[in-house]
Amino acid sequence: MTGRFRGAAPFTVAIDGPAAAGKGTIGRAVAERFGLAHLDTGLLYRAVGAKVAEGAEPVAACALTPADLARGDLRSAEAGQAASRIAVLPEVRAALLEFQRRFARREGGAVLDGRDIGTVICPEAEVKLFVTASPEVRARRRWQELGGEAAPLPYAAVLAEVIERDRRDSERAAAPLRPAPDALVLDTSSLSVEEAVARAVAAVAAKRR
User: Could you tell me which residues come within 8 angstroms of residue 129 by beta carbon, excluding any fewer than 6 positions away?
Assistant: First the structure.
């Protein structure tokens, strides 16, 4: 089954969760399977964070261009930490809100992954997933992405960063990280990528009937 939403009413899949839980991988796979547009909203905050680190004012930095989103350094650990610090600013969240909402309700449907999609950006989303995993598992995944034994940081330091980012994201006053009440919680701690994607695909397919 490779059904498409082209020409149909908007259909939004909202995927939230902490860093390195697998929501981006799942989001891309779901979008590919169903022919939906995909937006990694974390890239928006990473790009803003990168511009602020270079001296821009936070709200001004929200005027993003395609070049800003194509920067090669947005997947770095430093960019992730900068994004988390920027995301606590209500004025930044407000500046990016409408862009995300327009994308979510575009004709043909869309998948958005982030930290407040199902709770703030698209509380009316047809499908809501909250993808999570234990801090230890997520830290190991991130450490391996950084090179494992050759990584610039030891695993313990990466774990400390993951825990600190979780605390900052979940305790912020503006749109804290938490599952929507009607979200399907998908714990990927002991799942393979294929298993996690299959569960997400099944959840979306069930809502299409």
Answer: 13, 14, 15, 16, 17, 23, 26, 118, 183, 184, 185, 186, 200, 203
